[in-house]
Specification:
Layout: H1 2-11, H2 27-33, H3 39-52, H4 58-67, E1 71-73, E2 79-81, E3 89-90, H5 100-107, H6 130-140, H7 144-152, H8 155-167, H9 173-226, H10 231-236, H11 238-254, H12 262-304, H13 306-319
Antiparallel strand pairs: 1-2, 2-3
Length: 320
């Protein structure tokens, strides 16, 4: 429900409540203290947003509301219910301008729609956080940063960004930057760990094969050496001799001075494989977290012009 509330507020220019801490009160009472939008207010906002898309008729309007997450029961007076809302809301209880008759009149261009917007004022906070900065930039709609951002992103994406920042308590830029850097470092660490494990697993597979080949051909090679490296002996046992030489060359390349047992290699292989599976599970989780954080931070940087300020700072340092 919180996600739906914030999305509608961002898309329609309403303020949202930051730092939703309960302070020992029930969720609904605490929201009421700060004039959080009621379900009816949110429905009015959703209707305003749907009307802004110029639906052809009343049925098209209802379809847009369904797409926005509302369940609709048609009837003499249509009733609607948002996600996680317990009760349906009748259109005729939304106030002036929102009854079915009035909405049909607006859609048939018989009258203009006057949205009833409600400004929800958050409790003053001494700390200026990202939500305040983002909303200020969206309301201003000016500047190179905003214009460049608007070409790539839209309000839906910004609403998703705000939801992520709120849900993960990343309300200050430094906290977002630190979290992103930490996730990226962890991702790189796990990536290095997995690559090292894969390299060693490949080495063990090769080493195991070469040890077996070496053991199987050792007697033949000893006999070849005792025969004074006879060409005739070589011709008769060339396959075994070549396998033996290849095994010795492989040991040298791998830096093996004392041959391990096949049993010890199998045990090491099993441990490494288990560690790799565990690391890969964390790797996928961390990769997804890193991608989300990088996307959110990029959205914030583009909108607030943070990346541009960094570029300008870099240029100044280069000219010194």
């Amino acid at each position: 429900m919180r996600r739906l509330n914030d999305t509608l507020c961002i898309e329609n220019g309403l303020s949202i409540v930051e730092n939703q801490q309960r302070h020992g009160k029930s969720y609904n009472k605490w929201l009421g203290d700060r004039a959080k939008p009621s379900n009816r207010e949110l429905l009015r906002v959703a209707i305003d947003a749907a009307l802004a898309q110029k639906p052809a008729d009343f049925d098209a309007l209802l379809k847009l509301l369904r797409d926005a997450g509302y369940e609709i029961k048609p009837g003499k007076i249509p009733v609607l219910r948002g996600k996680n809302q317990k009760r349906f809301i009748r259109l005729d209880t939304l106030g002036s301008g929102y009854s079915e008759a009035e909405l049909r009149a607006v859609l048939s261009v018989e009258k203009a729609h006057q949205p009833r917007k409600k400004i929800i004022r958050p409790k003053p906070d001494k700390k200026v956080n990202l939500l305040v900065d983002i909303q200020a930039k969206l309301r201003a709609g000016k500047g190179v940063g905003y214009e460049r951002w608007a070409k790539v992103f839209n309000l839906k994406q910004m609403a998703q960004t705000v939801n992520y920042l709120t849900e993960h308590n990343l309300l200050e830029y430094d906290a977002l930057a630190a979290k992103t850097a930490s996730a990226t470092a962890r991702y790189n660490e796990l990536s290095t760990q997995i690559k090292a494990a894969e390299k060693r697993l490949a080495e063990i597979a090769v080493l195991k094969t070469q040890i077996i080949n070496y053991a199987k051909t050792r007697d033949t090679y000893v006999a070849y050496r005792k025969a004074g490296y006879s060409k005739k002996f070589l011709a008769e046992h060339e396959s075994d001799i070549l396998l033996h030489k290849a095994a010795k060359k492989s040991f040298d390349e791998l830096g093996v001075k004392k041959l391990p047992t096949v049993k010890s290699l199998q045990a090491e292989y099993a441990v490494l494989l288990a560690e790799k599976k565990t690391a890969y599970f964390d790797y996928r989780k961390t990769r997804n977290e890193m991608k989300e954080l990088l996307t959110v931070k990029a959205n914030v940087d583009h909108l607030l012009g943070t990346d541009e300020r960094k570029m300008e700072k870099g240029k100044v340092l280069e000219t010194r």
